[in-house]
Amino acid sequence: MSTHSYKKFEDVESGAMPDKMTIFQDCLRAFNSSPVDAKKCRTLIARLLRLLYSGETFPKQEATTLFFSISKLFQHKDSSLRQIVYLAIKELSSISD
Predict the structure, then answer these.
(1) Complete DSSP assignment for 39-88
(2) Interatomic CA distance for residues 49 and 36, integer angstroms
(3) How many angstroms separate the Cα of 33 from the Cα of each of 1, 4, 54?
(4) Do the beta carbons of residue 27 and residue 70 sit within 8 Å?
(5) What is the DSSP-derived secondary structure letter of residue 34?
(6) pLDDT, tens digit, for every residue of 25-67?
(7) Full-model pTM
């Protein structure tokens, strides 16, 4: 995969972290769209997990909103999306209501 198409999200070479608020808003938009774009959702969840794994946290209300928005994706037919949804829910469950 070329890093060129990925650069619109973040600069991979610099190791810069994606912006937390941008990811939050992009996630809500993508997860609640119809139809759901599985590839876009997987990319956004991967970015969200990168933030969480690096020690970044979200306020309880935002984490809860993300938790419920992501959990709806469990019903999607794309198995790789469901797998990453599981990882995200596992991480968010400790910081959400």
Answers:
(1) HHHHHHHHHHHHHHHTT----HHHHHHHHHHHHGGGGSS-HHHHHHHHHH
(2) 19
(3) 26, 26, 28
(4) yes
(5) S
(6) 999 999 999 999 999 999 999 999 999 999 998 999 999 999 9
(7) 0.80
